[in-house]
Amino acid sequence: MKTHKELPIIDSLIIKNDFFEDLRGIFITSWEEYNPSISIENFKPVSLYFSYNNKYVLRGFHLQEKPFEQSKLVQCVHGEIYDVIVDTRINSPTYSKWYGTILNPESKQALYIPKGCAHAFISLKENSIISYLIEGEYKKQYTSSFFWNDPILNINWPIDNPIISEKDSKAQSFESYMQSRLNNNDKK
After folding, report:
1. Tens-digit pLDDT profile for residues 26-42
2. Cα 136–139–142 angle (5° rounding)?
3. Tens digit of pLDDT for each residue in 62-87?
4. What distance lies between CA 165 and its chain's CA centroid?
5. What share of the chain is helix, strand, coil (3-state, %, to 5)?
6. Distance in angstroms between the alpha carbons of the first and the last residue of the chain
7. Strands of the sheet with 98-103, listed across from one edge
8. DSSP state of 146
């Protein structure tokens, strides 16, 4: 039976997937909307993405802004990652807090990231494959990012010099990101 474990970030969960194992290998059920023992309340995914990652590649921090926020169910199906979420919800009791965990196929776990939380991960093994079950439509013009190693957040990454994209190298500080969100909300 799938189990949920609440995390220090409000509304985020570690989900232990149902699985069947025999001499052929393992069959894992990572999502069933109609099965209340393994579903997440109000999570209605609309897309499934995969990323293939070389060792020490870091992606993030990324998220989508209102009104197109997205929640995600992230799972490492091959290799291993250190996965981190940051709460950017201004009125949340866990605002600006972060949580990190190791995800790999052996753990049979997935990380549920609620709307309003940013996501990043670093691949700890060659050819790490990540699946993202996503609720909410992708809208490029609503995407945001901030530095993976922002000193305000003080995240304890397992690698000091990861491989990052040009886009992520030009991200803004967490403070600048949050200030721009506050300014945009004032205009609405």
Report:
1. 787 777 776 665 567 78
2. 105
3. 999 999 999 999 999 999 999 999 99
4. 17
5. 15, 45, 45
6. 45
7. 98-103, 81-87, 117-123, 58-64, 143-145
8. B
Active site amino acids: 62, 132
Token pair, residue 54, equals 């070389």
pTM of the entire predicted model: 0.91
Task: Using CA atoms of 2, 32, 85, 60 in order, give the dihedral in degrees to the nearest 10.
Answer: 140
Amino acid at 134: I
Q: For the structural domain made of 3-187, what CATH number should be given? A: 2.60.120.10
CA 120 to chain centre: 6
- Give kind and range of the element (H or E) at residue 67: none
* C-beta separation of 159 from 58 below 8 A: yes
Q: Burial of 163 by CB count in 10 Å (0-12 exposed, 13-18 middle, 19+ buried)?
A: middle
Neighbours of 134 (CB within 10 A): 19
CA-based nearest residue to 184, from 12, 81, 67, 57: 67
Rg of the Cα atoms in the chain: 16
* Low-confidence residues of the chain: pLDDT under 50: 1, 186, 188
